[in-house]
Amino acid sequence: MVKIKKVTATNIKVKTDDDYPDGKNYTVKSANLTSSDGEIVADNITEFEVTEECKLEYTYGETLDLKTGNVKITYGSGTVENVTFEEAVEKGLTIKYSNKTTAKTGDHLSVSDTGKWLMLTMDGISSWYKTNNFKINKKDLHIKADNKQRYYGDENSSVTFTYTFTDSDFVYGETSSTFTGFVAPGFSCQATASTEIDKEKAIPNRQ
In Å, what is the CA distance from 143 to each residue of 23, 129, 147, 168, 169? Predict the structure, then answer.
């Protein structure tokens, strides 16, 4: 009778061919390793299923987070793992945007990415998964009317309001000096010539 000994493999040296003559060590991914009669065999992934999508709604300035969601991975031996999207990538899953570029945690997202989606595939597996669409919300910018003064009894028409941005609102290295496409709001003030001092503020008109 042959005694079978359980083996745990931590490092495997992969045989090389003429294309890789230097005999480097390689990392085996997408496989649990088991022992069968002393021979180390790979327990390959046979199926994946998305049971919870990763985060798909963001505000401009937030970056893509693939450390969310859940992917159920099934191996040939019947072993099942539940992992995040990012952990599934480490096991061989490919995640790409709808424009076919590779998606990764930390990617900058723009409002124009609203309506795009993620496609999940894995080599050797015919199934695939398409997520729901991204929703990227606009980020608020705060502006402040500069302090102005007029003499009591004068009308507001004698005052021209200007404004400043709150620079901490900007992201991705943008600043008020590099910001383009902004339509400046007008300002109004409810004060009249007879309004008491310091009783009314300048209010930006909605765009």
Answer: 62, 43, 13, 11, 10
